[in-house]
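Pentatricopeptide repeat-containing protein, mitochondrial, pasting as requested.
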Amino acid sequence: MALAASASSRGHRLLLPLLRCHLSTTAAAVPRLPVDPALLRRLARARRFSDIEALLEPLKSSAAPSLSPSPEPLLAGVIAAYSAAGMLDHARRTLAELPSLGSPRTAISLNALLHPLNRSPRLSPRVPSLLAELSSAHSLSPDQASYGILVKSLCLSPGGAASALPVLAQMAERGVPASAVIYTTILDSFYKERRPADAERVWNEMLAKGLAPDLPAYNVRAMHRALHGNPEQVLALLKEMQSLGLNPDTITYNYLIASYCAHGRFGEAMRVYKGLEEKGCAPNHATYKNLLASLCKNEEFELGLEVFDDGVKRGKVPDLGTVRILVEGLMRAGKVRAAKRAVTGLRKKFPEDFTGEWKSLEKVVGLSKDGGGGSDPAAGTAAAAAA
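Structure tokens follow.
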């Protein structure tokens, strides 16, 4: 856990009780490369593309057929790494080179090129045209994973879920079965567009095709009920899941906690939070961030301090903006010792990360020489992830 990474390096995100579900429409598995992914990300951020090329190009020769049953998985990893770095020309060139490298060229490599693009708002809109172009140029037949990547791209683009529906018909025409993951991606998009009737039609179509909704699909429904319904509706969904043999996970319970908080029922939210481990779950980072933000927003600072202390013990600290609201609230409530204890606890737990704007908390509680408080210029609000 790094305090700086959770706050100032990405902008402070005050987590609201409105949670967002992350769905994966990943392609076929691509093996890990013998190159540190974090190093590649740092080089890409620094635009040191020649260094990335120097790391990846030698891997092509090491993927010779004599060294492995099929060199395509490793070469697909190279393609994915280039694509993730935004080096599309290199990714496309490697895809074109596969036969000369002694490798088959299948949808595995095509998907390796396309999948990372959905993580970039700038590159995701290019997925539909690239899928069509590369499939035609290399005589490749998109598979289920390819269409999943396409659907994800369309759901992220203007037009959203409605533009993804024709893909289902196209898949049926080509004899490619749709998966529950693809339906869940469209379902999630319709709910986020506040089109619940369309979402329910997608849900019913999924059931009609004999696709059993899995845990992520139910979590999407739980998200919608948490945001636009009430706790009883979320609880009813949990019971439905359990009747089907699906055990709710931490994400599901995060939505229930969020719903209780949204309706001012903080005691019940705390009971769910405290009972997570009994249910075989553990609070995750989003649990602490969202619950603490909701408690502080409603001036439930004593409960907030309890959640905060537990999060610090587990190495899961909310963003600076939320912690500052907690500390300032404790000070206003006359709980100066508790506020100081919270700040000193952070400082002792994360001495190397307690720098920069985090040190401004010392001023709030009077631990610094110059004293005083002041507002946090970087604090902001944003939607939160449940996982």
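Note for the archive: Strands lie at 14-20, 381-385.
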